[in-house]
Amino acid sequence: QVQLVESGGRLVQAGGSLRLSCAVSGRTFSSYSMGWFRQAPGKEREFVAAITWSGGSTYYADSVKGRFTISRDNAKNTVYLQMNSLKPEDTAIYFCAAKYADVAGRGDRTREYKFWGQGTQVTVSP
What we know:
Elements lengths: L3 E4 L3 E3 L4 E7 L7 E8 L6 E6 L6 E3 L7 E6 L4 E6 L8 E9 L14 E2 L3 E6 L1
């Protein structure tokens, strides 16, 4: 059973930075492509960023491109989301997710992912 545990969310002022982490249990972390999604109150879960199993390719939502960076450390079974220049509209619960590397798609759709974490709250004050 694969388990994902996010951490690093908190209250931050607009313009600030946060780094989210997602620790993944299991010995096959390097076989998963990983993604970050977020969900604001009353809204659907939306794609934020994705990274391939090797870390060689990344993909971002237009709303975060240039501000957020996804990375992974396969030796630590961890994926990260560095968030800079945060805006109030970035406020949401952030979820990490794992998909098998051979599942088609670039990682921007929730249905591609097999495993999900419980989420970590990010709140950006004006």
